[in-house]
Amino acid sequence: MWIKQEKVRVKSSNRKEKYVKSGPKAKSCLLRTVPVASWLPRYSFKQDALGDLISGISVGIMQLPQGMAYALLASVPPVFGLYSSFYPVLIYFIFGTSKHISIGTYAVMSVMIGGVTERIAPDSNFMIWDNVTNSSIIDTVARDAERVRAAAAVTFMSGLFQILLGVVQFGFVVTYLSEPLVRGYTTGAAIHVIVSQLKYTFGISPLRYSGPLSLIYTVLEVCHLLPKTNIGTLVVSIVSIVGLILAKELNTYLSKKLPVPIPVELIAIIIATVISWQVNLEMKYGVDVVGEIPSGLQPPVVPAVSLFSQVIGDAFALSVVGYGIAISLGRIFALKYGYKVDSNQELIALGLSNSIGGIFQCFAISCSMSRSLVQESSGGKTQVAGALSAVVILFITLWIGRLFEELPKAVLAAIILVNLHGMMKQFLDIPALWRSNKIDMVTTFLLTVVLNPDLGLAASIAFSMLTVIFRTQLPKYSLLGQVEDTDIYKPVEEYDQVRQVPGILIFRSSATLYFANAEMYQEALGAKVRTHTHTHTHTHTHTHTHTHTHTHTHTDNIPRLTADTIHLATFSLQLTSLLQTLFLTL
């Protein structure tokens, strides 16, 4: 009996030891998975609260017009842009690791969502007969409901992809998205954004095209419909665009004198709404307005599983693009302020933001550079600023959202077009990128413009991988010589003022040596050695002939090749291929 009690005590003590040992591990795992639990208890109200408060209000004010505007890109009612600026922001506040990026709606993501919603729920599927006008009209209520279902489904699925990639530690994948590829893709996507807003700018209703060359067909359709332009809408668009550009230039000029930027977009939608309500732009001039904005939040809805098979490719593209943009911007701020952004945790945070957001009928989000810069420059120190911006959106959605029902959609389109100036400035980087990696950027840009953004991304990544393969299969081989009186070595075929070290052949390959190109490397090295030996033999024989009476060749005095010095910086760690190649060559 006593022995049994002792055994029970031993087992009990062992369990306690296991719990004690596993406790710190569980806590560490919890803090990694839920980062807010590690930094929020140490939050300094004295140092950070005021800056986060000002920053949160400023970003929240920006989220209002941008959320409504980018909802137009996603082809869903504007109020769903407000939902997408609320739920995902709160989720990222809990799970994100970047202190400065502003999560919410983003132009490229929105236009990709718009391609999905308009493909699944085109206008032609919702035509009904109107007995009053004796003509066919679009049942916008049913169409918008189906488009919201499609947007929520693809958003939910993209979130699942991001969570899965984060769990399997796949955050490194973004390193394979080169800067020229990202710039070419975002610039090409910006062209799609511009074309998608032309219908709101001119007040026309072009047909919806999908698939490759859809952008070209849309531009041709818009040109065909230009004679039917709504003059009232065009005037509103021009005035809004000019006013926003001038106001943003004034903002830039006064940026050093003002603590926070002037909320020009908020001022624009307030003025436009008041004028539209006073003049009755919709009834008198046929200007399309936002329409009904329901107050309150949407209840959670199970995503449409039946649509998953139709949007799986789009969902994966959204997950990659959204993560690539967020982690790139997050690393910039992390480097500037000296903290670390966990790439895998960012995948999980964005995935939870999108998947939970999809349940609440949001569309896919990422981070916006303009909002992130405002969040940083206005004093934001932590993601408390992001949470406060979500509170601002919640207040607007619950109590004052309905005041913007008379807002012309042309004003929202103007906000989108003016906000694209950052992406359009990337055209100025073409000369620099052209010198370093022109093929990737130009090809990615053209593929994105000619194809849809989702197909363009897939084709661009495939092309980028092919170029890597071709570069390893078609490298440049050269013999190096020393520039006189320096430690610099240059190719002897390209520079006359270099000399080869006697008895040593320095051979360089522009590509990494691995099993796939080892044989070509061997052949190239052998060819260079033979050419080098033949050249020196010929030179020595020619000199000897003119110096002596006999003409037979002497090679005994030729500098003998005693070593191969290889530029190891171009090699990978595949030493087997390296050693085998050198053995066969030498």
From TrEMBL:
It holds the Pfam family Sulfate_transp. It is a multi-pass membrane protein. Residues 534-552 have a biased composition (Basic residues). It is found in: Membrane. Its main location: membrane. GO terms for molecular function: secondary active sulfate transmembrane transporter activity. The chain crosses the membrane at residues 70-95, 101-121, 153-177, 229-246, 258-279, 315-335, 347-371, 383-400, 407-424, 444-470. Residues 494-586 form the STAS domain. Residues 534-556 are annotated as: Disordered. One of its GO terms (cellular component) is membrane. InterPro entries: S04_transporter_CS, SLC26A/SulP_dom, SLC26A/SulP_fam, STAS_dom, STAS_dom_sf. PROSITE patterns: SLC26A, STAS. The keyword Transmembrane applies. This is Solute carrier family 26 member 6. It comes from Nothobranchius furzeri. The lineage of its organism: Eukaryota, Metazoa, Chordata, Craniata, Vertebrata.
